[in-house]
Amino acid sequence: MTAICSPREVFKEALRHGCASIIVAHNHPSGDPTPSKEDIRVTQRLIDVGDLMGIEVLDHLVVGSQGYISLREEKYI
């Protein structure tokens, strides 16, 4: 299963509230929190857009029934 992530939707509330940074999180219904290639690609896209907007992406958490993985801790960010 693949979901589309729009940077516009991700940053809309951050802009509305004047946030300087965000943490992104999503779940994997399979239960395995291992980030996919698409998760990593989307994370980099969000970082790039955030840089243009002056909003830092601090982390991206992938959650599953087996726990979670921080893309920052795994050095993807």
Automatic annotation (TrEMBL):
One MF annotation (Gene Ontology) recorded for this entry: metallopeptidase activity
Keywords annotated in UniProt: Hydrolase, Metal-binding, Metalloprotease, Protease, Zinc
Gene3D superfamilies linked: Cytidine Deaminase, domain 2
UniProt cross-references to Pfam families, sorted A to Z: RadC
Stored CDD domains: MPN_DUF2466
Gene Ontology annotations of biological process type: proteolysis
Annotated TM spans: none
InterPro entries recorded: MPN, RadC_JAB, UPF0758, UPF0758_CS
SUPFAM superfamilies documented for this protein: JAB1/MPN domain
Entry keyword annotation includes Glycosyltransferase: no
Highest taxon listed in the record's lineage: Bacteria
Hydrolase found in the keyword field: yes
Domain MPN: 1-77
UniProt record similarity statement: Belongs to the UPF0758 family.
Protein name in UniProt: DNA repair protein RadC
Species of the source: Haloplasma contractile SSD-17B
Lineage start: Bacteria, Bacillati, Mycoplasmatota, Mollicutes, Haloplasmatales
